[in-house]
Write a structure and sequence with these properties.
This protein has 4 helices and no strands. By secondary structure, the chain is mainly α. Bound molecules: protoporphyrin IX containing FE.
């Protein structure tokens, strides 16, 4: 098996685990937590589960980036960044940058404290905003995934 095929397998498995987890948090975890009556219980449950997922997401994001850049290197396809028809490559890179920033910098240094403060003050509003943000991330990730599969197999939106 060629290295690039191995990289593609790693890329997709990592994307499944990562974006699948985002989907689970958005469509199951947060709605379930919103139903919990006690504020303390809500915060504790969310932090325990999302904290566990954050470790997985850090690993899968890293693997997605490494395998993605490796494929670009092997295919010598860097010039795709200069062609708007490869919008799905720009989109993959953007989604990856956004999540990496959140997971490695914003969450541990800023968001964790901000969440604890506002979830205590106004839990309903905090969980509502967080749910909306998760939906935005999930939708752009799914559009990106659809575009990447179609684009990698020769479909171009614009000729
Ligand atoms: C730094 C970030 C990333 C880079 C450099 C990257 C790069 C690549 C490359 C080079 C390919 C192969 C394209 C081809 O065969 O013509 C690919 C495929 C793909 N990528 Fe990414 N990617 C990145 C992030 C992501 C993210 C965040 C997602 C999902 C949200 C994603 C989903 C996919 C999918 C679904 C494929 C299609 C595989 C197939 O159908 O064969 N990638 N990526």
């Amino acid at each position: 098996m060629e290295n690039i095929t191995i990289a593609r397998i790693v890329h997709i498995i990592a994307v499944i685990l990562w974006i699948g987890g985002v989907s689970m948090v958005t469509t199951v975890l947060i709605p379930a937590i919103k139903k919990i009556k006690s504020k303390e219980e809500q915060i504790k449950t969310f932090e325990t589960i999302e904290g566990k997922f954050a470790i997985q997401a850090k690993i899968t994001t890293l693997l997605t980036g490494l395998s993605g850049f490796y494929m670009l290197y092997e295919m010598n396809a860097w010039s795709r960044y200069l062609d708007y028809r490869f919008w799905w490559l720009h989109s993959m890179t953007l989604v990856w940058i956004i999540f990496s920033l959140i997971l490695y910098i914003l969450e541990p240094y800023i968001l964790h404290k901000v969440f604890a403060k506002y979830a205590n003050k106004a839990p309903d509003k905090t969980f509502r905003i967080m749910h909306q943000l998760h939906w935005v991330l999930l939708v752009i990730s799914l559009i990106t995934t659809a575009g990447a599969v179609a684009g990698s197999h020769g479909w171009f939106w614009v000729k």
